[in-house]
Design a protein that fits this description.
The protein has 435 residues and is mainly α. Helix content is 69%, strand content 1%. It has one domain: Ammonium transporter fold (Orthogonal Bundle), CATH 1.10.3430.10. Strands 1-2 form a two-stranded antiparallel sheet. It starts with a helix and ends in an 8-residue tail after the last helix. Mean pLDDT is 92; it is low at 6-24.
């Protein structure tokens, strides 16, 4: 071989791992950079996204209580995830729970890998999911739960509900074994949070004046700001769940955006027909419904399927919201169950539909990864089992936790404190001082 060719070949072999972001241990710099960004985006969803979204929806006398709940849950869940949460969720263990091999992330070093990214990054990315899920629940008991009880419930709920369900679905547990499709958290995040919020609303009872007087949001500008941060952050939530900088991540981001857009317009259209005017609150709620519903299906749906899912989310979640509040008269303060819970159920089931090769001429609506069940009926049945198991388990355990905590520390503030507002009664501070 010519000496020049030998030199060029040697240079290519030397620099190609750097250019490709790979070494002999399968580390991929592009994947790592992408998941680093996604991790920050998912944390942005909670702080400040969800904090502002929820904060604007409550009355001004409770704004600080919501903000500090979001911040405190983020801190507490992070330390629990470090101590044993990650190990129990993603340790080998058995079909129901992981093991204690990664307590305090003791066996994770700078060079440890999870797939093509550092395991430390994977643990951090999953930590942000463990943060936002219990934070979603506070919308179900906003404006009436004591801070101490809230924190105790959040910690115990992470241990008893979120960690086991995460292991079932993403940690190699029994739902993964039966072939459940949940790309980014329809069961793990949205159904668990939605059901827990509904149970909390039932156990605590309605806010004073619910159904008798208006309990309007105090700052929709703040809510819309938070909603915008949620929309952007959801790119990391769903796109990052591919755990690589690849076509799956790009498609997940695309369908996430499309579903959110369809959810917004569907909700506004229904309001325009029913009430004569579309509302700002309706628009942002439809967005969240579209985002939550596409989440489990985002790795298995094409753009056409995303439009159908977004429209379905806007329609189904709208009517469920009215049914919960007006017919059943449950004060799920910030509509966590009808938006996240129902959206998670709907999206998980539709993932089984759009991932099926049985779609035939309509196969452009979704795509099959080859890792699931070959028939639509079989896949939808697996999805149904996942939905029912997650819903029933979450409801039972959440109810037991709330009742047990109430025996030790009262869940609800007294009537005088509720009238004054949690900002003053629980924290002795005001959200606004306009004097």
């Amino acid at each position: 071989m010519h000496p020049l060719k030998i030199l060029v070949s040697s240079l290519i072999l030397f620099i190609s791992p750097t250019l490709l972001g790979q070494d002999n241990n399968a580390f991929n710099a592009a994947d790592t950079a992408w998941i680093l960004c996604c991790t920050a985006l998912v944390l942005l969803m909670t702080l400040p996204g969800l904090a502002l979204f929820y904060g604007g929806l409550v009355r001004s006398k409770n704004i600080l209580s919501v903000l500090i709940q979001c911040f405190t849950i983020a801190a507490a869940m992070s330390l629990l995830w470090l101590a044993f949460g990650y190990s129990l969720a993603f340790g080998e263990g058995n079909a129901l729970i992981g093991d204690f091999s990664q307590l305090m992330l003791a066996n994770i070093s700078v060079n440890s890998l999870s797939g093509t990214i550092p395991e430390a990054l994977f643990a951090l990315f999953q930590m942000t999911f463990a943060i936002i899920t219990p934070t979603l629940i506070i919308g179900g008991f906003a404006e009436r739960m004591r801070f101490t009880a809230m924190l105790l419930f959040s910690c115990l709920w992470l241990i008893a509900v979120y960690i086991p369900v995460t292991h079932w679905v993403w940690g190699g547990g029994w739902l993964a074994t039966i072939g459940l499709y949940d790309f980014a958290g329809g069961t793990v995040v949205h159904i668990t949070a939605g059901v827990a919020a509904l149970i909390a609303a039932l156990v605590l009872g309605p806010r004073k004046g619910f159904g008798q007087i208006a309990l309007p949001p105090h700052n929709l500008t703040m809510t819309v700001t938070g909603a915008g941060l949620l929309w952007v952050g959801w790119y990391g939530f769903n796109g990052g769940s591919a755990l690589a900088a690849n076509g799956s991540a790009a498609m997940a981001m695309l369908v996430t955006h499309i579903s959110a857009a369809a959810g917004v317009l569907t909700w506004l259209l229904i309001e325009r027909i029913k009430y004569g005017k579309p509302s700002v609150l309706g628009g942002v709620t439809g967005m969240v419904a579209g985002l939550g519903t596409i989440t489990p299906a985002s790795g298995f749906v094409g753009p056409g399927g995303a439009v159908i899912i977004g429209i379905s989310a806007g329609f189904v979640c709208f009517w469920c919201t009215l049914w919960i509040k007006q017919k059943v008269k449950i004060d799920d303060s910030l509509d966590v169950f009808p938006v996240h819970g129902v959206g998670g159920i709907l999206g998980t089931l539709l993932a089984g539909v759009f991932s099926s090769p049985d779609l035939g001429i309509f196969s452009g609506l979704g795509f099959n990864t080859g890792a699931g069940i070959s028939t639509m009926g079989g896949q939808v049945w697996a999805q149904f089992i996942g939905v029912v198991a997650t819903l029933v388990y979450t409801a039972i355990v959440s109810y037991i936790l709330l009742k047990a905590i109430n025996l030790v520390s009262p869940l609800r503030v007294d009537e005088e404190s509720e009238v004054i507002g949690l900002d003053i009664s629980e924290h002795d501070e005001r959200g606004y001082d306009l004097s």
